[in-house]
Structure formats: C-alpha cells, structure tokens
Amino acid sequence: MPTLCLLVLMLCSAYFISCCTDHERNCLHFLAGLSQDGHGGLAASWRHGTDCCSWEGITCSSTVGKAATITDILLASKKLEGSISPSLGSLPGLQRLNLSHNSLSGGLPADIMSSGSIVILDISFNLLNGDLQDSPSSSSASGRRIQVINVSSNSFSGRFPSSSWEKMENLLVLNASNNSFTGPMPSFLICIRSSSFAVLDISYNHFSGDVPPEIGNCSSLRLLKAGHNNLSGTVPDELFNATSLEHLSFPANDLHGVLDGAAIIKLRNLVVLDLGFNIFSGNIPDSIGRLKRLEEIHLNHNSMAGELAPALGSCTNLKALNLGSNYFSGELGKVNFSKLSGLKSLHVSYNSFTGTIPESIYTCSNLNALQLSFNKFHGQLSFRIANLKSLTYLSLAENSFTNISNTLQILKSSRNLTTLLIGGNFRDEEISDDKTVDGFENLKVLAMENCPLFGNIPIWISKLKNLEMLFLFNNYLSGSIPVWVSILNSLFYLDLANNSLSGEIPAELTEMPMLRSERVTSHLDIKILELPVYTGPSPKYFTVSDFPAVMILENNNLTGVIPTEIGQLKSLLSLILGSNNLHGEISETILDLTNLEILDLSNNHLTGTIPADLNNLNFLSELNVSNNDLQGPVPTGGHLDTFPRSSFDGNPRLCGHMLDQDCDDPVIVDVPQGSSRQGGYKAIFVIAFGAFFGVGVFTNLSITPKPDKNGFKSLRDIPQTRFH
Ligand SMILES: *[C@@H]1O[C@H](CO)[C@@H](O)[C@H](O)[C@H]1NC(C)=O
Ligand SMILES: *[C@@H]1O[C@H](CO)[C@@H](O)[C@H](O)[C@H]1NC(C)=O
Ligand SMILES: *[C@@H]1O[C@H](CO)[C@@H](O)[C@H](O)[C@H]1NC(C)=O
Ligand SMILES: *[C@@H]1O[C@H](CO)[C@@H](O)[C@H](O)[C@H]1NC(C)=O
Ligand SMILES: *[C@@H]1O[C@H](CO)[C@@H](O)[C@H](O)[C@H]1NC(C)=O
Ligand SMILES: *[C@@H]1O[C@H](CO)[C@@H](O)[C@H](O)[C@H]1NC(C)=O
Ligand SMILES: *[C@@H]1O[C@H](CO)[C@@H](O)[C@H](O)[C@H]1NC(C)=O
Ligand SMILES: *[C@@H]1O[C@H](CO)[C@@H](O)[C@H](O)[C@H]1NC(C)=O
Ligand SMILES: *[C@@H]1O[C@H](CO)[C@@H](O)[C@H](O)[C@H]1NC(C)=O
Ligand SMILES: *[C@@H]1O[C@H](CO)[C@@H](O)[C@H](O)[C@H]1NC(C)=O
Ligand SMILES: *[C@@H]1O[C@H](CO)[C@@H](O)[C@H](O)[C@H]1NC(C)=O
Ligand SMILES: *[C@@H]1O[C@H](CO)[C@@H](O)[C@H](O)[C@H]1NC(C)=O
User: Which residues have CB under 8 Å from 200's CB, separation 6+?
Assistant: First the structure.
C-alpha cells in the first residue's frame, strides 16, 4: 500500500510527530508474520499503513521535528514463531532487542551480533540453533556498543565465536547457558577489551578442555558459572587474580586438584563457591575462614578427605554448607557452629564422620535441612534439637544412633518437620507402640528401614495425616498390616518389604485414597525434597509429583488370597507381593491396574491361570509370577512375549513355547514344586535421599545433572540406601 504509507509519512512531517521511516517499517515487516496470535494482539496492532512507532512492542526515539528512529523492540513472550530476519541488524538506532520466551527457530543472523547500535540483546528461551557466526571482520563498528547478550536456553551448537566478541569493548554480561556449545571455553581476551566485563554464564553446554588462565585478567568479573560442561584439568592459579569474583561455580565437570589455601583467600569477595560433582581431592584449607562474605560452599561429590578445618566456623555469613559424598573424617565438632546463626542447610552425608552430633549445631536456629546420613555418628539424639524450629528435613540414616523411643519423643514436637529419615540405626531395638508419640503433624516422608526394628507397626503412624511415603522395609516387624493404613489420605508410597508381617492382606489396603485416584498428587515441596530414583542400574529422575505410586509387601509371611478389590488402586505403578504365602487365583481385576509397570507375585502358592488379557497392561515392563502353582498357557502375542522365561519359571503346569512345554501335550506331569524360596530380592527402586541434590533451601541451589553427566560417575562412591 504505497499510497497509504506516503499518506502516513506526509501526516508525520506535517504535524511534527515522530514516525518511523519506510526503511525501518520494511525492516520490521517480517515480524508481523511471526505472530501466532491470530487476529488479536500483535497482528491487530501491526497494520499496514500505520506508523510503526505505535506498534505494540516498538518504541521510537521522539526527537521533535525529526524522523523517529526505532530504539526498542520488546517482544518477549508473544508466541512468535519462525526465523529472525537479518534486517533487524540494519535498524540504525536499535538499542534494545528482546525476543525472549518465544518459539523462534533458525539461526541468529550475524548482522544482529555485529549491529553497531544494539546495547541489549536478549533472545533467550527460543528454539534457535546452528552456530553463532563470527561477524565479518570488515565491519569495525561490530558490536561495539553491546553490553548484554543473553542467548541462553536455545539449541545453539558449535564453537563459541571468539573473534566477534573480542571487539565488544563494552560487554558486561554474556549468558550462553543451556545450549550445546562445544570446543574450548570462550577466550577471555574480552577482559582486555572490556575491562568492565562482569557476568559470564556458560553452564549447561558441552565445553571441554582446560579452564583458560586468561580469566585472571578479568578484573571486574563478579560471576562465573561454567557448571555442567566437560571441563578438565585443574583450576589455574591465574583465576585467583580475578579478585572481584563473588560467584564461582564449576559443578559437574571433570576438574581435579586441591583447593590451594593461599590462592583461595585472594577471592576475598566470594559469596558462592560451587565445585561439586568433580574430582577435587585434599582437604578444606584453613584460610577459607577468612572469606567473610561466603554464604554458600558446595564441595559435594568430590574425593576430598581429611578432618574439617575449624576455620569454617568463622564463615559467619554461611547459609549452605554442602560437603556430601566425599571422604571427610574425624569429628564434625571440629567446627564450632555457634557463630553460624544464618546456616540453613548442612549436608555432610556420605562421608566418614565420627563422634556425636556436635552440640553447637543446635544453636543454628535457622537450620532448615540437616543431612548427616551415611557416616559413623553414634549416641542418642539431644533434646536440644528441638531448638531447631525451622527444621523441615532431617536425615540421620545409616549411622549408629541409638534409642529410637527417645528419638521419636524428641522429634515429635518439631512441627515443621516434613521429612524424617532415620533408618539404618537403632540396631535390634524394639519400636514401641507408644501411644504418647503424637505430633509429627506435618510429616510427609518417614523412613525407618533397615535397622532392624522389632515390634508391630506402631499405631501413632495412623495419626500422620499428611504422610505420603512410608519406608519400613528390612526390619523384623511382626503382626498384621494395620487396617488404618486406609485412612492415610495422602499416602502413595508404601514399602513394608522384608519383615515378618503375617495375616491376610487387609481389604482396607485397597481403599487407600491416593492409590485409588487417577493421579497421585504430592504436596511435597519440590525445593525441600528431590529424590533421584534408580530403576535398575541407570538412574531415572522423577520430579516429586510424578514419583511412582508403589505398594511393596514382598518377603513377609502374608497369607490368604490377593483381595479382588486390588483393581481399585488405579494409580499403582508397582505392585510387589512376592515371597509370601498367598494362595488362590490371580484375580482378573488386576487388569484394572492400567498404569502398572511392575508386577511381582513370585514365590507364593497362587493357582489357576494367568489372565490372558495381561497383555492389555500397556506399561507393564516387568512381570514375575515364577515359583507358584499356576497352570495353563502363558498368554502370547503382545508384549508378554518379550518377558524372559524366568518370569514364569517354577510353575510346572504352565505351558507355552517359551517354557519348552507344548500346551497340546497331554502329559503335563504334576511335578512337585522344586524351587526354594530363597527370596530373589531384586533391586527395583534404589533411592538415595538427597544424595544428589543439595536440599534447595535457595531456589537455584538444587542441581539436576544431565543424565549423561559426570554426576553419575560419582555413584561409585555413594553407598546408596538400598531401598531394596
Ligand atoms: C526481556 O524481557 C523479559 C520479559 O519481560 C525479561 O524478563 C527480561 O529481563 C528482558 N531482558 C532484558 C535483558 O532486559
Ligand atoms: C537474560 O540475561 C540478562 C542478563 O543476565 C537478564 O537481565 C535477563 O533477564 C535474561 N533474560 C531472561 C528472559 O531471563
Ligand atoms: C542465564 O540464563 C538462564 C536461563 O536461560 C538463567 O537460568 C540463568 O540464571 C542466567 N544466568 C545469569 C547469570 O543470569
Ligand atoms: C534450558 O532450556 C530448556 C528449553 O528452553 C528449558 O526448558 C529449561 O528450563 C532450561 N533450563 C534452565 C536451567 O534454564
Ligand atoms: C593479562 O593481561 C596482560 C596485559 O594486560 C598480559 O600481559 C598477560 O599475559 C595477561 N595474562 C594472561 C594470563 O593472559
Ligand atoms: C569430555 O572430554 C574428554 C577429554 O577431556 C573427552 O574424551 C570426552 O569425549 C568428552 N566427553 C564429552 C561428552 O564431550
Ligand atoms: C596472576 O597470577 C599469576 C599466577 O598466580 C601471577 O604470577 C601473576 O603475577 C598474577 N598477575 C597479576 C596481574 O596479578
Ligand atoms: C563454640 O564457641 C562458643 C562461642 O562462640 C563457645 O561459647 C563454645 O564453648 C564453643 N564450643 C566449643 C565446643 O568449643
Ligand atoms: C513453620 O512452617 C510454617 C508454615 O510453613 C511457617 O509459617 C513457619 O514460619 C515455620 N516456622 C519456623 C520456625 O520456621
Ligand atoms: C532412652 O531414652 C529414654 C528417654 O526418652 C530414657 O528414659 C531411656 O533410659 C533411654 N534408654 C537407654 C537405653 O538409654
Ligand atoms: C531383610 O532384613 C534383614 C534385617 O534388616 C537383613 O538382615 C536382610 O539382609 C534383609 N534381606 C534382604 C534380602 O535384603
Ligand atoms: C508364617 O506364618 C505361619 C502361620 O501362619 C507360621 O507357622 C510361621 O511360623 C510363620 N513364619 C514366619 C517366618 O514368621
């Protein structure tokens, strides 16, 4: 519509209103085509023949009497799709370009990176890919004014172009995190060009090789995040020349070496030090106590050893200390915690600490999460732990603590406690059915497994209205499964395996509200508890909300038949009833468990046939009905064919080609059951509470290693909780 345009232009000059030029409008034109908003929003605002300075998201400079020029294009979260046109790079006055949180694809045109006017460029959270190209070396204006580049959370790959940003003498912030960049870490020549370069985030990429020593020349660098890459070698001495650093973070790489005390004190402004998930060795240097601004130390999942530096007790601003999964030893009490009044999270699990819990910890009244599991602590819990009024997560598992009655009496009044993991202690003690234990009103996860404990399943558990997960396996608990389990409205994970429970499976168990619902809803605060779950040898991550609904009753002395109402537990993913004394037939109602992934009924006395429609359970990936008294054909067709012979073995009257037993053969002999019940106690879920995750007291504290990342190689040093 050339005439309309002309008209607008004439109006503009006549009334001295600032309008954008034809050239600029043409540059922008493509944007309207990216909008997926339909008729509303952008498309409505961006009409032909109107002044583009009035378009939504566009700002122009308004010098009266002059043609306006576009300065800002702010179109974050506008559902834009398609590719970015190079024409944006030729808008002469464009200073701010923000296209974040759209679905833009294709590459980033080199003309934009080399624009002579852009100051802030944010194209984060799109679907952009390809290499970032070096700008043509001829353009001397190239990126001269740019201060902020955010290309994070896209799919860029290839090497990071170094020559273009060496010209960027005003660069302050570069965020290239969460892409697939490869090659060496970007060169730090930039710090010679731009002496105020302050923020570099290249985490979650595939950068490899050494950390470049040139980093030491970045005298204004405040934040350096390079975690979750493939960096190797040691941290170069020169890095400690970058004395403005406040945040230094290299988690989940392949770095080694020791923390040099003389070097680290040079970083006197350090607030966050995160070197977790590497292979650092040696101990914590005493000089760390002189870093007075330190708020977070994460050295978890390394190979560090020795006794703790008492000087840690002088880091008076400390909020999080994470030393989990190393080889530290000696008394935790080497550190006097009484000056660390701001401490919120203390994580020293999976080490070799000895002695008792130091009394000084009980003065840290802001402590939110205390993780002491898998060490060699002993003694009784002090009543002073009640001072920790904010405590939500307490893990004492796999130590040598004693006196469970005392422990429960002390902790019951910790009102904010949501997770209590105390298994692997209290060896051979009796759990009293103590009616005076009440409290724990906010408990969501209770684990008292593997002690082993004697006694009945205590009735006070019935009062834990918020309980979502209960782990009592590997004890000597006796008596029957209490019918009150059905009134625990939130419970969806029940593991009572390997006890001496007897009697029938109560029909009430099939009334469990959470297991009957279509979907399990957890109210666990994801920041407080993240559970990595290992299904078989390879870890599989569940967010808390999709943590599986599970009922594990195997290896007990349960009798009677499987209640036919079992089919009501719609949300069950695993039903494990193996190694009991169950008899009767496999009820057809089991076919109603449409979400089932694992079904184990092995080592019982079940009779009758295998329901042919088991094939309809689409998600079933593990089946074990071996060592029963089943008969008739193994259902064929569908995915049942993929299960190994061992799923069906030990049922002499079952037939099918898989068992080399022709179903038409009239002589199916009645062999006495030869198999023994040695309790093939298979690893199904191995859970290590908080082993991988710092308990995220702070929002960005929890790290989620990529499945192929280094983090997992550290599995070797983790004696996992065998939650089976
Ligand atoms: C871009 O816009 C988004 C959404 O408004 C905002 O969160 C972000 O901070 C902006 N980027 C810059 C660099 O200002
Ligand atoms: C991109 O990074 C810049 C600089 O760190 C920041 O100001 C901006 O908010 C980020 N954009 C988004 C969408 O988070
Ligand atoms: C970089 O961007 C990511 C999102 O893509 C964000 O999570 C991160 O905090 C940013 N880094 C900095 C230093 O702002
Ligand atoms: C990484 O990018 C993906 C895709 O944009 C996004 O879903 C995810 O939240 C990002 N991760 C981080 C840590 O910002
Ligand atoms: C730091 O910069 C100086 C020049 O300003 C240079 O001589 C020196 O080699 C640089 N150091 C490193 C480690 O690059
Ligand atoms: C990581 O770097 C090492 C060499 O340091 C290399 O052998 C390995 O293939 C790299 N791994 C990935 C996933 O890039
Ligand atoms: C930087 O560090 C190196 C090695 O630690 C040292 O030799 C050098 O003098 C330092 N440079 C400056 C400018 O401080
Ligand atoms: C810890 O320090 C406090 C003073 O800050 C002191 O009163 C207390 O005795 C010390 N505790 C130990 C075990 O040294
Ligand atoms: C206990 O939890 C409640 C609710 O989450 C919170 O309001 C309260 O401040 C907490 N108490 C302490 C001492 O942290
Ligand atoms: C266990 O603790 C209780 C106090 O709760 C105490 O009365 C009892 O003596 C303790 N038992 C042992 C063996 O120390
Ligand atoms: C069953 O529990 C007991 C007691 O904790 C333990 O000794 C035994 O190893 C467990 N059995 C299996 C197969 O895990
Ligand atoms: C299992 O129960 C039967 C009777 O129901 C009893 O005779 C047997 O001793 C029990 N076995 C165990 C190991 O508790």
Answer: 174, 186, 221, 223, 224, 225, 226
